[in-house]
Amino acid sequence: MDEPLFDLPRAGLRFDADDEVLARAAWSRLAEPGDAVAGALVDSLGPADALRWLVDAAGAPERAEAVLRRIAGGRELGLGTVDGSPGLAEAPGRLPEVSTGAATGEGPAAGRAARGGAVGLLVAAVRRWAPRLERLDPEGELAVLGRHGGTFLAPGDPRWPSSFDVLGAAAPLCLWVRGDPDLARLARRSVSLVGSRACTDYGVRVARSLARGLAERGFTLVSGGAAGIDAEVHRGALVSGAPTVAFLAGGVDRLYPASSTDLLRRAAEEGGAVVSEAPPGSVPGKQRFLKRNRLIAALSSGTVVVEAALRSGALSTANHAVRLLRPLGAVPGPVTSMASAGCHELLRRGAAVCVTDAAEAAELVGDMGEAAPVRRGESRPGDDLDAASAAVLDALPVRKPAHERSIARVAGLAFADTTGALGLLELLGLAEQRDGGWRRR
Amino acid sequence: MDEPLFDLPRAGLRFDADDEVLARAAWSRLAEPGDAVAGALVDSLGPADALRWLVDAAGAPERAEAVLRRIAGGRELGLGTVDGSPGLAEAPGRLPEVSTGAATGEGPAAGRAARGGAVGLLVAAVRRWAPRLERLDPEGELAVLGRHGGTFLAPGDPRWPSSFDVLGAAAPLCLWVRGDPDLARLARRSVSLVGSRACTDYGVRVARSLARGLAERGFTLVSGGAAGIDAEVHRGALVSGAPTVAFLAGGVDRLYPASSTDLLRRAAEEGGAVVSEAPPGSVPGKQRFLKRNRLIAALSSGTVVVEAALRSGALSTANHAVRLLRPLGAVPGPVTSMASAGCHELLRRGAAVCVTDAAEAAELVGDMGEAAPVRRGESRPGDDLDAASAAVLDALPVRKPAHERSIARVAGLAFADTTGALGLLELLGLAEQRDGGWRRR
């Protein structure tokens, strides 16, 4: 018989686990972001039943399966698509494999206990969730959120963004929001602009220009609140009076990093939002930053990487965009700048479309028909001439007029075609008759 | 009855039109570069018979068809694939349409007389070729070439580059070469690097770096001999002791432009070649520059556009590379630089692969398996950890050691998995035990 994973009978849960909001808030503490086993379980049983089962299962792991069968009854647990295979941790330097673009569930590597299918996944999950049961305090965390004027958002709420549906079981269990909680509305016309913290002056200039241009086009600007490019994106939106949404890796009670605190406060106060799937008090660890990036990629209609080195976390966001089959753009930069090497690698692999200004970004992520003007360069006299007229224009002397016969020979054209072309060029103001011959005008 | 197009009986040809070399040289004066009707005719009849027919046809256009039938006998004239439709002149600002990548004959717009199929094409061609019959002087032009130590190269010569076959009837009728006439050998491992005359310091730096890197990898560097990027490419090759080939739009007797004269002379003297399909004395007009670009695209294994504005002639070379289905690369630059806007447009359309250094250019155009090293950025401790170890590393305190139970809770992992991960991290030198707990190392 297994040892109980924690002594719940003695400790007890310090809150009403029948309350669906409290139970859901508790789950966002129990499970790490993107834990698809938690997502599938909470989806299937509802947060309160799922929590009750976890308490039972943690106290007597050997009964976990039987208890689950009893609670679930005939309900489908939706774990069939959850990938429980142990894998590599997410890493910022891992670029998307374009060939495997399938939007499979973004399941976490569920440890070494993937044996035994869904039951194996659940037993392994109980083992990793149980240590956090002891200190659960969703009431306290909701109170902290309330003190910041925040909103607890759950799936099913009309303000919950349907763009998260693409994440499947790895969608967030809930969202802790400061600012405007209507993420559904904010997401409707939105674009994610991301980039390196260690950015260059060039990257800053491009980020500002893209952010303002997209803000003027009515887009909500989504980013990660980090220093560098992210900060310029949020700032550019605020300057233009557009809403901006920042996804944090840690709790929204702490507007991290310190350099962005004022900016993030303004984002929440001026029509946008600061959002986390982790409850207040959560520390922003590296893996949480990487998991957070899937929310940036999923919320908006598309993502543009403004400036990113090869190890930039922004490439993780790009990776998520590719896996979710969302449009991805990358802004090129000097090939001599390592700060753009990540963007160039995305372009080389064909994972991202080359984006050079706000109009092109809007074409990528905006509505049908929202095409950027075709870049043609300045038009010049003589553009769009037919071949004969172009050849005659080429053959026309600049100063001393030449006879039509000589022009025909130089142009390599029939005499009659030359005469016709000269007439057309005269009409267009490109040729003139002088002293019985022709010259350029 | 038509009026004779010129009075040949009185003027006569001033050279032995039975001499195949002289006749071919004459044809390169009669027809503009890329004239596919001339190409098909000379291919089918041979240059001398084709010239004799032209003389007859020019004297009595109404007999042209009958005479052609008599000369050709049952021979196929190969005009079936020649596009005689009147069209737009080539323009540098016209970017490739990627969807229509078929390598159709690069036929010229043959004027307004495309009616009547092959015969109509030929009658129109006679009218444009005839005016040049009077002043033909292939002996004089060959003598000028000889004074420059040059070589007259015709198809069938083992030194003729087979890479031109892709041009079909629009292949050059002959080549006027200064320097090493073995273009077949020079083309074997070759890359075309092209760009704007109005280049930036950035473009110059990139051109030099690419040219040297590719020269060191054993490539012949092909370009257009122009000022700006082209000149840097030729110079980069010469500095590295690699052969370089310059295609001129005008005759090779005049090493145009003046700023490139010394460079082009060195190219011809130091193992490379300066090449034109137009005879000595030919003036480099705009349409000839554009037609010349097809030779740059066709000779080498692939083309890389180093820096090009939207109106750059380099985009015409890119256009030819796309139509010939040859690999095309483009080097990105700052989006704030209009001098790179043409490259970015090629990348946006998916016409070109993003190329950032010589290794990537070599991967694009070189042999199978000549892959550029994968760009990954510096590796760091903790890369390639499994998910559990990464989470534990994330959860490890930097200073004050924490107990395994607390680490499991922070990491969101089962106790057993945490213990296992700590052991692995200790082995990797990333974690250490201290005071009964664990911390980062």
TrEMBL record, chains A, B:
GO terms for biological process: DNA-mediated transformation. It comes from the Bacteria. InterPro entries: DprA, DrpA_SLOG. Residues 152-363 form the Smf/DprA SLOG domain. It holds the Pfam family DNA_processg_A. Belongs to the DprA/Smf family. This is DNA processing protein. It comes from Promicromonospora thailandica.
